[in-house]
Amino acid sequence: MAPCSPPRTRGWVPPVSRQRHLNPRRERQLPVRARHNAAGMALLLLLLLSILLRLAGGAAATASEPSRSPATALFVLGDSTVSCGGSSSSILPLNLTAGPCLFPSAARRRLLPDLLAAKMGLPPPPPISTLNGTAARGVNFGGVQYGGGGGIFRTGAALGQQLRLAAETLQLLQLEEGNPQQDASSISGAVFVLSFGSDAYARLLARAPGDADAAAPKHGRRGLGRLLADRVARGVQELYEADVRRVAVIGVPPLGCAPRVMWAGGGGGGGCVEEANELIEGYNARLAARLEELRPQMPGADVVFCDVYKGMMEIISNPGRYGFEETTEACCGLGPFKATVGCLSKEMACRSPERHVWWDLYTPTDVVANLVTNWSWSWESPMMGICSPISLQHLAAGPPSS
């Protein structure tokens, strides 16, 4: 007897054939999806290959760039903000102060050059007046004044004299090295710091507006910023022509908040003298703009501008955040704001200078100087951007600009 078989109906097919018949779309999609996967893998491989080629090219370009070692020397030009020696020890005789270098402790006051040298792993640059030996590790030309007295509009002459001394020093280094190529390398490894303007504005703000304008009728109070910024920018160009490739230019702090200016401006409420600060902001802005114009003209050089005004205003606006209690009164002096008479002896100093923003008539305390230096050195600090376009740490140790 024949085995039983299911009854056949019209259109009946075996189960397997029926499954294929019922899913024709799926049957067609399988090879299409496989092709898509293969195309995706090929695209991924091309992308990886492109990244590897780019990395290899970047490494080759980096290898072809001239390497730059950490800073080998620190040369400083400036006014009393960078020097305790020479004629800068009494730069403001009209205000009866012994200058910014008198400190209540036995330790020598550390100014910007000392703080920066420590961060660079270099010894403090010796003042040019006390230099005894080679200048290969740096020199502090700051405080060297011109012979024409302390006129407001004579800062450019002091800068010119210090630039001449710097040029002569670099020439002596060439003779010491005896190898022009080695000498060029040592000069390019040096960092030059320029800090001008604070003394000039202190003298300017010590006078009444009419007296300051009368001292220079062609320029007036606002003309100082234009003249000084242009002279500093020209000094940077002169250094570049002498093969200097690393330069930091320091701006002027907010002297409108300094005790002497607040006392002279009648700031009985303890607020900063806005007109004075506007003058200084104008100078800083013009100086930053002039340096920005110069950068494309000086290939291979790094020129940094450090806005210490911004850093100090952060402290003055938020004193408690940084451990300060007194933002208007000087630590050392007499009278309202301790600014009628400046700091003439150590005995006049307060007991806790670390709680004061200002040391004397115009000078910040060591704690403030340390904070601003730290913010200038590294962008990892909360106050990123005091220096631009790079930090001083990058200037001292980073790769050269392309």
Secondary structure: helix percent: 40-55%
Q: Outline, from the CA principal axes? A: globular
Poorly predicted tracts of residues: 9-22, 24-28, 56-67, 86-95, 146-150
Largest sheet features? 5 strands, mixed
Summarize the structure.
The protein has about 400 residues and is mostly helical. The chain has helices at about 15-20, 25-65, 110-120, 155-175, 180-190, 200-205, 210-215, 220-240, 260-265, 275-295, 310-315, 365-375, 390-395, and strands spanning about 75-80, 190-195, 245-250, 300-305, 385-390. Helix 4 packs parallel to helix 8 (about 220-240).
Write a structural description.
One of its GO terms (molecular function) is hydrolase activity. With 402 residues, the protein is mainly alpha-helical. The protein contains 13 helices and 5 strands. Strands 1-2-3-4-5 form a 5-stranded mixed beta sheet. The N and C termini lie far apart (98 Å). Residues 9-22, 24-28, 56-67, 86-95 and 146-150 have low confidence and may be disordered.
Descriptive key words:
13 helices; 5-stranded mixed beta sheet; 402 residues; mainly alpha; single chain
